[in-house]
UniProtKB/TrEMBL annotation:
GO terms for molecular function: FAD binding; oxidoreductase activity. GO terms for biological process: ubiquinone biosynthetic process. Residues 51-437 form the FAD-binding domain. GO terms for cellular component: mitochondrion. This is FAD-binding domain-containing protein. Keywords: FAD, Flavoprotein. InterPro entries: FAD-bd (IPR002938), RIFMO-like (IPR050641).
Length: 724
């Protein structure tokens, strides 16, 4: 299916009958008198109603809870429990149905944009970089007949520019999900979140800052002012229900989201692309062998006895996950016992190992679906992460897209809670993020198809295997006894794997030589499974939402090609702010460089206005500061000086912007002679201006100056962005 056909699969909106009750209210959230700018009913609200309840404590839910808790928790109050803050932080609690966190590695690739988000979480990105395996141990995908046998080819997914930090201040990472969750929990603990277990809870109200383990959401009921959540938990051997009222309910509870189902929100896309079994195991001997002989992240293994993909989560610790195709009902999970899995692992390794320790065996189904809507019930129920979109793992877009969902959503929730914006600001989350999810779904499917091109080239077309399985299950084979169905399926797969015999797959065999040559071309042309997509990871852009498009912006993002493309910096509204190293002129250590992305804080809802040190630009900045005060939103002005004209910069800005003090003078860091200046990189003149949102995406720009009344322009800008 082409990209346009794939997108059309998401276009129809299914209006399902909701399984929750909604009671409409005429003046919800106090918006009857917009001109009074009293948007939020959160101020002086009933203490029995929690502002934000997050259901699901995976990476997305935990990141969202950290972002919300940090918003308002500035350094002046960092030694005091957030529970004593005066309207500073966004009060939230997290429900998790599991009693403990899984140690199954699951997701492991963290892209550039997610690492940029993590840089704002009190050094999380740096902790990941210190803790992850060295990059040379995971930069390659290896294709082989066994882990100790002939190598069919390998692909290095890291390029020199990936380490130069030209387009981003931080590199990608390889770090298992359960380890990431451990670090996120520590960040929450540092923010005075409490990990609460059912047996230690009484009936007191939730004040925010609680992580409630072992609580499963079983019912939601949306009223005019709140969402009432019923959570079931086991206490003293009996299931007990607890009622929690919240203003905003965010479902980050994974691909099988209970919140999505209770809200009656349907998924659109392709179901059941592939069924697999995931085997988590440890083997230090295997890890040491691969460290020495053929280090890599993924190993695609094809031989006559077994086929599988081995994910090396940590070669030094010997931690792996083996993914194998699974064909129920002819096969069942019972066919993958611990002993059977050990036997299959040895077949794929190609030699004996004495220390294989199988930890866990899980079946899972690969889907490519996006929720028909991300926001429902008058902006009170919101989906994020896998609850909103389910991708093939190819390219690692699942967790990364979810983390960026949370980053987009956090400042908007904070703006509502703090009375800066009405609840309609939350709908821009869906307007912006759903098209990105649809695009990333298409890209993930395309990358998955590229992965399947390798076995197809070797004579093992997975689509043929799936067709055979479907014929046996649903077609003429369905009338046969189950045992005979199983025997037929096993026989056909054995014949198929014979294509991988050493007799056939070698350079002396005419057919084998042809297949190997075609496989080499596949790798050389970048048409196999890819790991990095810089143009998509950093270059995604919101076309509408909490921003003001301009006529000079490029059109919609081109359809995905499945090949790696370089990121090109852009100042188009909706784009991520380009990264450039700058020097803070007000800092005594004037040689210290920071990224332009670092100029936005992670602890407050603040916009950033970039200008050059020109008279008209200073006038625009003063207008922005005045209007921001009227709109009760924080704006910082960044005056970006050319490196050769910084003398007297601070005095000039102080005079031009008086009495306002919320500004910073920076200069472009010394660059090579062929490097672009800030304004040329942004394809603008220095007479222009760029307004950046708290999530580091550009909300508005004037490419070459502003001829209109700056006060009126800024009022129009903030009204459009904040939806007031």
């Amino acid at each position: 299916m082409g990209f346009l056909g794939f997108i059309k699969g998401f276009s129809s909106v299914y209006r399902a009958k909701p399984r929750i009750r909604v009671y409409p209210s005429f003046c919800q959230y106090g918006y009857c008198h917009i001109q009074c700018r009293t948007f939020s009913h959160f101020k002086d609200h009933d203490d029995s109603v929690l502002p934000v309840l997050i259901v699901g404590a995976g990476p997305v839910g935990l990141v969202l809870s950290i972002l919300l808790t940090k918003l308002g928790c500035d350094k002046k109050r960092s030694t005091v429990s957030c529970k004593t803050y005066e309207l500073g932080w966004v009060k939230c609690s997290v429900l998790e149905k599991s009693k403990s966190f899984s140690h199954h590695p699951q997701a492991h690739f963290i892209n550039n944009r997610s690492m940029e988000v993590f840089r704002k979480l009190d050094g999380l990105a740096e902790e990941i970089q210190r803790s992850q395996p060295p990059v040379d141990l995971w930069r390659k995908f290896v294709y082989c007949t066994s882990l100790t046998g002939p190598v069919l080819g390998s692909v290095d997914h890291m390029q020199p520019q990936d380490f130069e930090k030209v387009v981003s201040p931080v590199s990608v990472a390889h770090f298992s999900q359960y380890k990431l969750i451990g670090l996120l929990l520590k960040k929450l603990e540092d923010l005075y979140f409490h990990n609460c277990k059912p047996e230690g809870l009484n009936d007191e109200l939730f004040r925010g800052g609680e992580l409630l383990m072992g609580h499963e959401c079983v019912k939601i009921n949306a009223t005019g002012q709140s969402v009432n959540v019923t959570a079931s938990h086991l206490k003293e051997g009996k299931y007990t229900e607890r009622n929690i009222s919240c203003n905003i309910l965010v479902g980050t509870d994974g691909a099988g989201s209970t919140i999505r189902k209770l809200a009656g929100i349907e998924l659109r896309g392709e179901k059941d692309l592939q069924k697999l079994v995931s085997v988590h195991f440890l083997s230090r001997d295997l890890g040491q062998y691969l460290l020495k002989e053929r280090p890599g992240m993924l190993f695609f293994i094809f031989n006559t006895e077994a086929i599988g993909v081995l994910v090396a989560h940590d070669l030094m610790q010997g931690e792996f996950v083996l993914q194998m195709p699974f064909y129920p009902p002819q096969q069942s999970l019972d066919d993958f016992s611990f002993e059977t899995c050990k036997h299959l692992i040895l077949k794929l390794v190609g030699q004996e190992l004495s220390d294989i320790d199988v930890i866990d065996i899980k079946p899972w189904v690969m889907h490519a679906e996006v929720a028909e809507k991300f926001v429902s019930c008058d902006n009170r129920i919101i989906l994020a992460g896998d609850a909103a979109h389910r991708f093939p793992p190819a390219g690692g877009f699942g967790m990364n897209t979810g983390i960026q969902d949370a980053h987009n959503l956090a400042w908007k929730i904070a703006a509502l809670v703090k009375g800066i914006a009405p609840s309609s600001i939350l709908h821009t989350y869906e307007t912006e993020r759903r098209p990105i999810a649809i695009f990333n779904t298409a890209l993930s499917v395309q990358n998955f198809r590229a992965a399947m091109a390798v076995p197809a080239t070797l004579g093992l077309d997975p689509s043929v295997a799936n067709s055979v399985h479907q014929t046996i299950t649903d077609g003429v084979g369905s009338i046969l006894p189950s045992g005979l169905q199983r025997a037929i399926l096993d026989g056909i797969f054995t014949i198929g794997r014979a294509q991988l015999s050493e007799f056939l797959l070698n350079e002396k065999n005419l057919l084998g030589s042809s297949r190997l040559a075609k496989l080499r071309r596949l790798f050389e042309e970048g048409k196999s499974l890819q790991l990095q997509f810089p143009a998509e990871d950093l270059g995604f852009r919101y076309l509408e939402g909490a921003l003001i498009p301009d006529s000079d912006s490029v059109g919609a993002q081109e359809p995905p090609t499945g090949c790696r493309k370089d990121y090109i910096p852009s100042s188009d509204p909706g784009s991520r702010l380009p990264h450039m190293n700058v020097r803070m002129l007000s800092n005594s250590s004037s040689e210290a460089c920071i990224s332009t992305l670092d100029l936005l804080p992670g602890d407050k809802v603040e916009f950033l206005l970039f200008i050059a040190p020109l008279e008209k630009s200073y006038h625009l900045a003063v207008a922005a500061l005045k209007v921001a005060e009227e709109f009760k939103v924080s704006v910082k002005v960044c005056i970006l000086w050319p490196p050769e004209t910084v003398k007297g910069a601070e005095a000039r800005s102080k005079t031009a912007l008086a009495p306002w003090e919320n500004y910073i003078d920076v200069a472009e860091a010394n660059k090579s002679s062929n490097s672009s200046s800030w304004w040329s990189m942004c394809q603008m003149t220095d007479k222009g201006a760029i307004l950046v949102r708290p999530d580091e995406h550009i909300a508005w720009r004037a490419k070459s100056g502003l001829d209109d009344d700056p006060i009126l322009e800024m009022k129009s800008v903030f009204s459009a962005i904040l939806k007031v």
